[in-house]
Amino acid sequence: MNPKLILASASPRRRELLAQAGYPFEVQPSSVLESRQPGEDAIRFATRLAREKAEEVFARRAVAAGTVEPAMVLGADTVVVCDGEVMGKPSDAADASRMLLLLSGRTHHVVTGVAVVWGASSPPAVEVAAELTQVTMRTLSPEEVSAYVAGGEPMDKAGAYAIQGYAGRWIPRISGCYFNVVGLPLALVASLLEGAEMRIASQLSPAKDLSLR
Q1: CB within 10 Å: which end of the chain, N or C, has fewer?
Q2: Which one-letter DSSP state was computed for residue 212?
Q3: What is the pTM for the complete model shown?
Q4: From CA 140, how far away is CA 108, in angstroms rounded?
């Protein structure tokens, strides 16, 4: 039997990327608050949130079903880092403008934490990893920033921009995974999911003579 894959995210970009990669999955958004702890660096922040999101959805499913079913829950969180500041989604239009003007004419980093929680028994297993991409943005005028923010695209994006959208014209180069900047590093995700599938198969096979195909 194939373990069910659940995406613990409401992000339409992550849904599109996971579907693009050929994975059948369900969407069950997490209710975890995306707040950073004092002194937490970007990688620890992103990976902690990814893990908490995946664990919260896995636990919720187990309670609802009354048992632990063979399943994998994928959590992710993306942040942008520039000049030591860790940026999530902007709080309002003024915050979005501030972020974009900070990124303007500079090179920054995009970090996505990814977590997979899985199990055919309790407690579930967890694996966490992070992807980092370097992004260069050209210099923006205040008028360009104001027009972009007014269009609404930045408001639910880490760092207040979407590389796959209008802001793509401002980015002359990246170093690393493009999909990471969109919100889900597909090669890293595939590696984690394949490892989880193999471990679930090894848990199930001795007891139930079941295998994953």
Answers
A1: C
A2: -
A3: 0.89
A4: 15
**Span 66-124, pLDDT tens digits:** 555 678 999 999 999 999 999 999 999 999 999 999 999 999 999 999 999 987 656 78
Q: Which of 191, 171, 79 shows the shortest CA–CA distance to 129? A: 191
Count CA atoms within 13 Å of residue 85 on its CB side: 14
Catalytic residue IDs: 77
Tokens of 125: 């297993």
**How big is the chain, counted in residues?**
213
- Dihedral over Cα of 107, 81, 128, 54: its sign: negative
Which among 140, 154, 163 is positioned nearest to 87, based on CA atoms?
A: 154
> C-alpha 58: how far from its chain's center?
16
CA 6, distance to chain mean position in Å, is 13
Nearest-5° Cα angle at 87, 82 to 91: 140
Is 51:75 a contact under the CB 8 Å cutoff?
Answer: yes
Q: What's the Cα-to-Cα distance from 135 to each of 100, 124, 164, rounded to whole Å?
A: 13, 36, 13
- E-strand ranges in the chain read 4-7, 26-27, 71-82, 85-87, 107-119, 125-136, 173-175
Query: Closest Cα to residue 158, out of 47, 77, 72?
Result: 77
